[in-house]
Records
---
Amino acid sequence: METSATYIPGESPVISINGLSKAFGTHVVLDDFSLQLERGQTKVVLGRSGSGKSVLIKCIIGLLPPDAGEIIVLGNDIIHLGHDELDEVRVKIGFLFQSNALYDSMTIRENLEFPMRRHTVGISDKEAESRIIEVLTDVGLEHTIDMMPSELSGGMQKRIALARTLILRPEIILYDEPTTGLDPVTGREITSLIKSIQRQYNTSAIIISHDMKCVKAAADSVAILINGKCYTENTYQALKQSDDPQVKQFFE
Amino acid sequence: MASSSKTFFSEAGAMTRFAGVFFQQAFKPRYEFRAFIKQCYIIGYQSLPLVGITGFIMGLVLTMQLRPSMVDYGVEAQIPAVIGLAIIREIGPVITGLIFAGKIGSSIGAELGSMRVTEQIDAMEVSGTNPYKYLIVTRVAATTLMLPVLVILSDAISLYGAYLGVNIRAVTSPSLFITQVFDVLDYSDVLPAIFKTFFFGFAVGMIGSFKGYNSKKGTEGVGRSANSAVVLASLAIFVIDLIVVQITEIMGIN
């Protein structure tokens, strides 16, 4: 059953990033970067390859420690959380890797079962099975349940990776270049799947991308990352009409 | 020179910290029993054929090579005793340890390295699962507990190979062979030899895990992790062997 997204502008943000900085040696990737994600909102972070987009979402989920700044996710200060508390917050955040990162020694069923068994106390085998079938049906791949990831195409693997993030019913999903490496048709299918998942599961999302078709279709708001800073932020249409050459280069 | 010694010490420090985390995590719930049992099956049971064949050949060849010298010295009757002591005290643990390092050290290094570069370890972490506990603790515990079992089995199969080796040129009954072997063996021969294999197993698992878990630079890095895991684990087996022999010597149980 689909429900409409509940993006209400002006609500308290589910992710609030303030003054975030991250450098690798002398190479500064993020420099005083700030961004807010409101509940129900889908925000796309647009930037050139190597501009630090993936570093940004890895900092949000606590995979990379930032050098300075503040990241508040669902009211929790990610940078200063202990390991166990961080794990509790991570359960509420889905992360779709660019490489899909499916566990290649496990079947699709085991891939989906793995996070669920760890975080859903007392779930029966029957309930677990029905939840697996449910998310697989949502991504249109229920027939792959006993297959290995290596038997699936790139687009199918992406769908399964999305199903794995959905199994814990996250409040926020972070997508790392979801359409990169896919053919245009599959890319469109994944974009449309992301949109329908956002509505159905009522999640907020940050999508890292430089695929303009995906940006146009999925974004409520677009933030442009240039030289480590949030250069500007607006709707897709507003940015498309901008005369600023730094912004225009993405829409040409 | 200064830079390479700095790299050595920084890597040694990192590996010590990595091993320290094992003791922190191993005794803290949640316990990954299913993953541990699976690793015991892969690491222990699936290594049996290789360990068995090498053990058998080791016992047989050692007997055949030793025989001419023993005959020259007129102590042919002592062959079972000498072979038994050599296999149980030193050759069995060390050769099995080296075979184990080659098979298991490299496979752990390559598997974890590949999981690292394909972001599977990161995926585990972001799903709120402790990858160290699930991947490292289970593997290191399995190598630590499985190698002693494999060594005991390898020793037994080696002795069977030695028995056949003795019977190529002479006739010895199984009961006489076993009596001659066990007559010279004491607890002080068997226990330190088994005791050191726990350390061998720990070293193989820990080094393979450390190299794989910290793998970098794509597929090239995975190959390098697997390779350096085998080299370092093999070296570690000899170093541990040397230390244990010194300790048992000092303690007077040699």
---
Amino acid sequence: MIEQRLRDALGAAADIDPATVRPLRAAPRRHRMRYVAIPAALVAAVAIFAAARLLPAQEQPMTFVGMSAPEPGEIRVFLCRKPDTLPACRHTAGDRARIAAKLDTFPQVAGYRFIDQAEAYRMFLRYAKGELRDVVRVSDMPESFRVRLKLGADGTPVVRALREVPGVLLAALG
Amino acid sequence: MTEIDVLLPADPVDVAKLFAEHHLGLVRLALLMVGDQATAEDVVQEAFARTHVGRRRLRDPDRALAYIRSAVLNGCRSVLRRRSVVFRRAEPYEPPIWSAESAVMLSEDRREVLAGLRDLPRRQREALVLRYYLDLSVGEIADAMRISGSSVRSTISRGLAALGRRLGAES
């Protein structure tokens, strides 16, 4: 008896007109944030690349949006990313060691520190605002060296030489 | 059969055929669970979309329909969970098929039965709807709910008893 009442009620409640059922729609894109992050990374890489190419020949000091303020007498060396969005910039496994070895050859260099993606992201979070914080991820950040110059040393030849080292995306005076 | 048909492995699951045969029934099933047609359609669409994406990974293509039913039930549970969180401190949510507007379409007796069903625990409600609306066998219900056959039988039995008590108390 109860079963029959249940069948009857369920049948009546579920009685919808098939004509009112919407046809299948295109499924919403999954991983929407991932699609947003890729252009953000691309924009960041293009910005760094453009900055490198557009820098005046005398390598004037520069800053990047979302990065901490540079110290005077400092060189920043950004490494190509893996994989990189810029075909001209090829990342290889030995980039970091090769660049460190090159830095050791300059008498103008007092010391240097490697900044990995996680640390770069922490710095980025300190300065970034709004939507940029949501779309940029750790994997979007470039690795870099911060190079400290000796007091009074001219960093221009160092920057020029570093730009020729494979795996360097950008070298600039801080 | 073209050369390409021979070279390409056939889809193990014909999702389009399943959709044509079972879409409306599953929307009705979801409607009974979540209470409104728009949400039911969304839940079923998501279930079909997931099945389509994962059709090559199904271990047993013959059980694709059971997989979709299970996905629909899971989708309904997610909807109800979200509603319970949203409305925990607000007024209770009244889905359209239980609402006053829809009530005029149903007799008093049917409304009592549906209200009693709605108040049952989630597992009993699902088992009763699968059994007495879709007329699924115990094995099919077990597949859809991912529980054993004996659990299905005992859940249906407890659900019917609880519903009978509620209806008896109301009448």
